[in-house]
Amino acid sequence: MHAGFPQFTSNLIKVMQTGAGADETLRPFLSKTGGTLLANSMALLIQLGFGFIMRDSLLGVKQAEHASHFFADNFVFTDPLMPSGKRYYQGKFLIRTRRPGDDMNVYFYFCPDPSKLFTHMPWGDCLDPKQVVKTEVLTESEADLLENNPDKVDLVIQFKDVDAITGLIGRPDADIVGLLLESLVQLKGNVGHLFKLGAIGTNIQLELDKSLQLKH
Length: 216
What we know:
globular, 5-stranded mixed β-sheet, alpha+beta, 8 helices, 44% helix, two-stranded antiparallel ribbon
């Protein structure tokens, strides 16, 4: 869990900063009324963040090849039991809070429909980046039902309240053990998916760093 969670919290902090949560004057507002605002910002930026490296896959041959290589390295597994000889990573996550009335529930899942992952372009079949990750903002009742359905959710990441999420802004080095001991977060489900989530996030960051180095 140590390996995956720092990258996850780092991404979450970036989501908060971009979604206006990093402004200290907004944090009291978010803690009382901003659960839905936070959820919508997080849902959008999770989708954009995990699809960023593959965003240009439909623009040309070079971009398509780069996106396909990244996708294959991070989302494709060899599986001789499948007719195609491979399967796709389809992890399903629910982020929410325990405090009643927060209304902060984000559901995201990878490769929801493998048949739609690729679309035909003049130069061949290319990855559709919009099909790699899907996000939904849920109501409290919808999240309650989903949380108890292991067929729909692999891992539930449940924070104490909205304050616990916004508080990560000032704790870039927070680790999962510390947050668990402080009762700021609870995990329910297969924690192995946390490693995978962290690994994908790390590879995205490496690609971004490489891109910046080439520009300089």
